[in-house]
Structures are given as structure tokens and as C-alpha cells.
Design brief:
With 780 residues, the protein is an alpha+beta fold. The chain contains 15 helices and 39 strands.
Length: 780
């Protein structure tokens, strides 16, 4: 061997060994794309993604949520980065606890999944102020989301902070990490025209900023028709296979960054639903029409803890996702989509390299997926102890230090430090000023820009009024009692989250703007400019009554008699039995906030009924990680008057499982597999109702069986006219005591010979069983 060749070999050998063995380092991944797909390490990929937001659950929940996402067939997790939780005060950052973004991304990578990081800075997401920290609103001459120097300055600083943090921990794919894509801005086309030329310049600037910050992965802009060449425009919606014209360039792939699995809810809304079949069909259609990535928004919605939700949004977020608020599998949505992902993977070669065409197989094509029903069970162990109360003092104007001629605007008064602000004024009446007739009373009218308020006259509660998500403004009108001499008019104004969408978000207003007293002998008296005292927050917040230490600062009394408005309540309870999720049923309350061991589980509002006559949300999630084994402190601040003695502590399960299969069902997706790059059929697939208990529990009870024409849904089946006792006995035989079972769909097995009351109809087999913890027989 020549000296030159030996020298070259000596130089290359360490590099070759490093590439083979990685020298103990994580392998770097090259992520590129073209007009057909995203390409990772030279391989074209079908990406099945789901949105999971780290601050909407807890670090203790993250591993199970990520593991179940993978079990559901996902290979990619998408999350926003929430500026206002990470930098609540300018220059002071928080990446701990629920906000530990790095830990969350590393856990995803450890499960072998990829990440799409949507850094914002605007995220919408039904999140307070769309993710912007409130201090940003106070920057001189700032205009959010426009080519405005103060905004560009702070956006760049924030984006650099996040990207550098990711680089520091080597989380980008080209560093060996799981982040394969990132997104800048969010649905900017919705507001772009409001900013005119400044909007167009801002889009170009934002794209340039993103690519300059890190060019090793693709960058996205969702719903951005004029996205610059350096970033990929994507689709958001429910039917992107039909509505998306494609990205704005021939060399960009078709990506669906938000496929809404249902809809978030605001207080006053009825339930939100989206059928698993509709969702699955939309996904299949998108991939069949050149799609390469579908992201479910949300795959796990979680909980808006504390005061993080935007205006009127419930604390429960996208509960109808494949993983519900508690991280439990919502069937059939979870299983239906899991089977769809398997089917699409089996078709990967055809989808990425074939020519699309449509073939109609059957009008009633379905996939057999297990169903489940969620159960809220009153805990046998966690019983609330004695309830005690502390009533807020209703202040008068002279007791409030902050004075102004008219009531100050509510957002800027509170600066997002609390939901509450007191306003009070005093006015003196002569007896002759008041109505002389007994059938006429003065009326207090408050025109408010939102969101809600309580009124008191001379310390007595008058009433409560509120707006809605659609119309935050409202007019409060109530009869009041006035007396000769000094009268004190006091309002407790409140917000229910800050706005999260629309143009010029820095120019929004709330709170009382015009206050009058009608029905006086001299007519209507405008007291708007009567000089008002104001106070940010209520006293209990300042004392931190929701903490163990803070609760010692107040004189609590035992709760007896009728509950009152603006009152704090506290009790202690032991952690519920088992390890199932925990919730509180708050239907005996009205509106307020709840803390467990000092941690807020969010706002509740059960007095705001939907058109169905029911609260939008009745149960409120208490993460297990918030609890101690015993002596847990529960503190409730009730605004309008509810009875805490009837609050129920619940454990949550999805142990009621069901299966419905019909004679016209096609074979299950597991009837096929891929071997040697060829699709093949498994021999003799069993058509039947398959049931599998969650978490290796066993089937302890058969609750419903029908072989005929049952109606209804899991947890609420209705028996039809046709049925079979033999089918019920067969289900008990095949399933009781097992973790899973399959009941063959065969008339000869399910129906007594010669005893079929409906021989000429197409039959359905509907089965509902209850799972529990106990010994199991061998699985079917």
C-alpha cells in the first residue's frame, strides 16, 4: 500500500468508525422536502402528528400521554411554545414544572417520536392574550404582529431565546434531536389585510428571522397564502383534502397542521362533537390527494390551569380529542384513527409514488373500533371534611386608595395579575330625591365592556351580570334600595380570560364604562364621573388564602346556613383510592376558582347554562401530582353564591367498553400486513366484536348485549325488537374474567336455530362490558 493511500486511510478510518458507531452520540438527521413529501434521512415519510401542549397537563402525565400517542400510531408531536408563561415579567424566564419545555421534548424523543415546534410568538390556541405576555402591551408605541420596530425588537429577542435553548440542548434534528420542523407566526392571513403594507413586510421579515435563527430544518407558516419561498404554507381546518389548494410553490409539500378533532368550548356552549368516521375519512382523503403530514388539533387537549384560558374558554380543552382531558383513550376515535394510520402505512408506497384515483367501495364502509364511555365515580375514600368560610369585605370608596374621576379601564388596571377589581363611589341623597311611591324603586344600570360584574349597594348584594364570548359587552340592570344620606355603590368587575385573536390585540378594553341610577325624583343620574375608588384584586388573593400558610392569615368560621357571594371556602380531604384520574363535580357552585394545595385547577362557571339547560362543564380535573396521600387543602373562591358542601370528589375511568359490528362491515385493517414491501392478506381473518380492557384490567360484568337492531351509543344503548338470549350467554362465556375477548359474528353461533324473530334484517351485534381490577383468565 502506497504511503499516500495509507495516509488517506488513517484520516478516513476514524470518520468511518464514527459514522458507524456514532462515538456514543445521537445520530444527526437530515430533514428536507420537495413537492411530494417531507424527506428524513433520505426517506420519504408519511407523518401522523398530534398536538399535545405541555402546560395543559403535568410532567407526571407527559410520559403516559406520549406513550399513548405513539400507541395511537403517531410518529410526530406538535406543540406551541407559550411566551407568556416563560417570560411573565420582562427578562425573567421560567422553564420549570409544567413549563419545562426541554424535558417535554426530550421525553418525546425518548419514545422515538419527532417534534414540530410552533414558537409563535403569537399562538392563538384559546390561550390568554394569544400567548403574548401582558407587559408587552405596555411597550411604548407597540403594535402587535406588524412591521413595527418595538414589536420586531421584542419578538426577535424572544425567538432567539427559544431557538438558542433548543440548540443548547441539541434538540434539532440536524443536531441529533427530535425537532424536525418549526413554525413561525400563526394564521396571519386572518388579520394581515388590517395592517396593509406593514402586514406584508412583517410576513417577509418573520420568515427571514426564522430561517436565519436555524436553517437546519424546514420552517412553516400555517394558513399563509403568500408565504415566502423559504417557508412552507400549510392548511388548518376540518376538510383540507377538499379546501386546501396546495402550498404556494411547486417545491413545497402539502401539510395539514391543524385538523380539528372537535372544537374547543366556551362557557354557555353545548357539547362539541366530531365523528371518528368523518375525521378518518378527511385524513385518508388528504393523504390520497398528495398530503404528507396530518396533525390532529388536538390529540390531547388537557386543562387550562389557573388563569391561562382566553376569553370565556372553559378550563377543559378539546376534551373530545382521541385522548380526553385526563389522558384516557376516547373510543372509538382513538382506535379508529390508530387503525387508519396502520392502513395508510400499509399503503405508503402507493401513496408516495402512485397516481391518485378514487374507487368507491361501499356506501357503508366502516372500520371496527372499540367504543368507550367515561365514568365519574364518587370516591369512597376522599370525603371532604368540615367546610369553613371567610367572607370578603365589600369596600367603600374611601377605603380604596386608587382614585380617579371615572372608573379605570379594567385590563390595564389589573395588568393580567388577577381576574378581579373593586370599583366604588359614594353619593348622598335627600329624602326628597328618592321615589315617593312604594311601587317605584331606583334602578342601577351599568354599561360594561365586559366580561362580568357583581353589584353591591351599601354592602348588600344586588346581582350579577355578564357578557358572552361573542359579545363581551353587557348592560347590568337591577332594582336597588337607597336611603337618605350617604349611599355606597360598589362593583366587583371581572375578566374571564383575555382576548386571543383578531387584529390590534393591544387595543382591547373591558370593565364598567357608564353607570347611572334611574327612577329618582329628578330623573336619571349619571354617576360615571362621580369620582371612584379602585383596587386590583380581592383581599383573599393578596393573603394567598389558597395556600396552607396564607390560609392562617384569616379568621375562618364554620359554614352554617345559606352560602353568600364573594366568599372563600376551605376544607381538607384525603387522596382518592387507586391511581385513576381525579376530578371535582362543581354543580352545587356558581362561578369562581378552585385551588388544591395551593395550585389552581382553573376557573369554574356552572351557573352559565348552555341552550340544553346544562353547564358547559360540570367536572374539573385535579391532577394526581397535585395531591398528597392525606390532608389535602381545597380552597374555593365563590363569586355569586354556591354551596361547597355538595362538591363531589370523583375518580375517572373509561372502564365501560363496547363494540358494535354489523353484517356489512368489511374486514379489519389487521387482516392485512406488509412483507417484503408487498401488501398481503392474512388468512382467515375472524370477523367479530373485539373488546380489550384498558390497563390490563379484566372484564367483570356484561352490561348489554343485543343481536339484532340495537340503537344508541356506548353507555346508553337501547335494545331493539330483535334480540337473542344465546348471544348474551356467549358473550359472558367468552369474555368474563379476561382482559380481552372476541365474539365471532356468526348467526349460527349467536342465534338459536329456528328461533330468529327477525331473519330477514341485516343484524348488528352490540356489546357493552365493564372492566375492573381483579384476577384474569387466559386472554382470548
Amino acid at each position: 500500500m502506497s504511503e499516500l493511500r495509507r495516509a488517506v486511510l488513517l484520516v478516513l478510518l476514524p470518520l468511518l468508525l464514527a459514522s458507524v458507531y456514532g462515538e456514543g452520540k445521537t445520530q444527526q438527521q437530515a430533514v428536507t422536502y420537495d413537492g411530494r413529501s417531507v424527506i428524513i434521512n433520505g426517506s420519504r415519510e408519511l407523518l401522523f402528528s398530534g398536538s399535545v401542549h405541555y402546560p395543559r397537563s403535568t410532567p407526571a402525565m407527559w410520559p403516559d400521554i406520549i406513550r399513548r400517542s405513539k400507541e395511537g400510531g403517531l410518529n410526530l408531536i406538535q406543540t406551541y411554545v407559550f411566551w407568556n408563561i416563560h417570560e411573565p415579567v420582562e427578562g425573567k424566564f421560567n422553564f420549570e414544572g409544567n413549563y419545562d419545555l426541554v424535558k417535554f421534548i426530550k421525553l418525546i424523543g425518548q419514545e422515538g417520536l419527532w417534534v414540530t415546534l410552533r414558537i409563535g410568538p403569537y399562538i392563538e390556541a384559546e390561550w390568554n392574550l394569544g400567548g403574548f405576555p401582558y407587559w408587552l402591551k405596555g411597550v411604548t408605541n407597540i403594535t402587535f404582529r406588524s412591521y413595527n420596530e418595538p414589536f420586531l425588537h421584542h419578538m426577535k429577542k424572544y425567538a432567539e431565546k427559544i431557538i438558542n435553548l433548543m440548540k443548547e440542548h441539541k434538540l434539532f434534528a440536524d443536531q441529533g434531536g427530535p425537532i424536525i420542523m418549526a413554525q413561525i407566526e400563526n394564521e396571519y392571513n386572518n388579520v394581515q389585510e388590517a395592517y396593509r403594507e406593514s402586514g406584508h413586510k412583517y410576513v417577509k421579515w418573520a420568515a427571514e428571522l426564522a430561517v436565519n435563527l436555524h436553517s437546519g430544518i424546514p420552517w412553516l407558516m400555517c394558513k399563509q397564502r403568500d408565504a415566502p419561498d423559504t417557508v412552507i404554507s400549510t392548511c388548518n381546518g376540518r376538510q383540507c383534502g377538499d379546501t386546501f389548494p396546495g402550498p404556494n410553490g411547486p417545491n413545497k409539500p402539502s401539510l395539514w397542521t391543524e385538523n380539528w378533532t372537535a372544537q374547543y368550548r366556551v362557557y354557555g356552549d353545548p357539547p362539541s362533537q366530531r365523528a371518528a368516521e368523518d375525521l378518518a375519512f378527511a385524513v385518508a382523503r388528504f393523504f390520497a390527494k398528495n398530503g404528507t403530514l396530518n396533525n390532529y388539533y388536538m390529540y390531547h387537549g388537557g386543562t387550562n390551569f389557573g388563569r391561562t384560558s382566553s376569553s370565556f374558554v372553559t378550563s377543559r380543552y378539546y376534551d373530545e380529542a382521541p385522548l380526553d382531558e385526563f389522558g384516557l383513550k376516547r373510543e372509538p376515535k382513538f382506535g379508529h384513527l390508530r387503525d387508519l394510520h396502520r392502513a395508510l402505512r400499509l399503503s405508503k408506497k402507493a401513496l408516495l409514488k402512485g397516481t391518485p384515483r378514487v374507487q368507491k367501495i361501499n356506501e357503508d364502509l366502516e372500520v371496527v373500533a372499540q367504543h368507550s364511555s367515561r365514568n365519574f365515580v364518587i370516591s369512597t375514600r376522599a370525603k371532604a371534611g368540615k367546610w369553613e368560610m371567610y367572607k370578603e369585605k365589600v369596600p367603600t370608596a374611601h377605603e380604596l386608595e386608587r382614585k380617579s374621576k371615572s372608573p379605570e379601564e379594567l385590563y390595564d388596571l389589573n395588568k393580567d395579575t388577577t381576574d378581579y377589581a373593586w370599583y366604588s363611589t359614594s353619593i348622598t341623597f335627600d329624602k326628597r330625591d328618592l321615589p315617593m311611591r312604594s311601587d317605584i324603586s331606583p334602578i342601577l344600570q351599568v354599561a360594561s365592556l365586559g366580561h362580568a360584574l357583581l353589584a353591591f349597594v351599601n354592602g348588600e348584594y344586588v346581582g350579577f351580570g355578564h357578557g358572552s364570548n361573542v359579545e363581551k359587552s353587557h348592560v347590568f340592570k337591577k332594582l336597588i334600595k337607597l336611603k337618605p344620606g350617604a349611599n355606597h355603590i360598589t362593583l366587583l368587575a371581572m375578566t374571564v380570560g383575555l382576548p386571543n385573536s383578531g387584529a390590534y390585540m393591544e387595543k382591547r378594553f373591558a370593565g364598567p364604562r357608564a353607570i347611572t341610577i334611574q327612577g329618582l325624583m329628578a330623573g336619571t343620574l349619571d354617576i360615571t364621573r362621580n369620582y371612584w375608588g379602585q383596587q386590583v384584586g380581592v383581599a383573599g388573593e393578596k393573603m394567598q388564602l389558597y395556600t396552607e400558610e396564607g390560609s392562617k392569615k384569616a379568621q375562618w368560621t364554620e359554614l352554617n346556613g345559606t352560602p353568600t357571594p364573594v366568599t372563600w371556602y376551605k376544607t381538607y380531604f384525603d387522596a382518592p383510592e387507586g391511581d385513576n384520574p381525579v376530578a371535582l363535580r362543581m354543580t352545587s357552585m356558581a362561578k369562581g376558582m378552585v385551588w388544591i394545595n395551593g395550585q389552581s385547577i382553573g376557573r369554574y362557571w356552572v351557573s352559565y347554562l348552555s341552550p340544553l339547560g346544562k353547564p358547559t362543564q360540570e367536572e374539573y380535573h385535579v391532577p394526581r401530582s397535585f395531591l398528597k396521600p392525606t390532608n389535602n387543602l381545597m380552597v374555593v373562591f365563590e363569586e355569586t353564591g354556591g354551596d361547597p358542601r355538595k362538591i363531589e370528589i370523583l375518580v375517572v375511568n373509561r372502564d365501560t367498553i363496547c363494540s358494535v359490528v354489523t353484517e356489512y362491515h368489511p374486514p379489519h385493517v389487521r387482516s392485512f400486513d406488509l412483507k417484503d414491501n408487498k401488501l398481503r392478506s392474512n388468512m382467515n381473518p375472524i370477523k367479530g366484536a373485539h373488546l380489550a380492557c384498558p390497563d390490563r384490567k379484566t372484564i367483570e360484568k356484561v352490561e348489554f348485549v343485543s343481536f339484532g337492531e340495537a340503537d344508541g351509543a356506548c353507555g346508553a344503548f337501547i335494545a331493539g325488537k330483535c334480540d337473542s338470549k344465546k348471544a348474551h350467554k356467549l358473550v359472558e362465556k367468552e369474555c368474563l374474567g379476561k382482559t380481552e375477548c372476541t365474539i365471532p359474528f356468526d348467526r349460527k353461533v349467536l342465534q338459536e336455530p329456528g328461533n330468529d324473530p327477525c331473519p330477514d334484517i341485516e343484524k348488528s351485534l352490540a356489546v357493552q362490558v365493564k372492566c375492573g381490577v381483579g384476577g384474569s383468565k387466559s386472554d382470548a
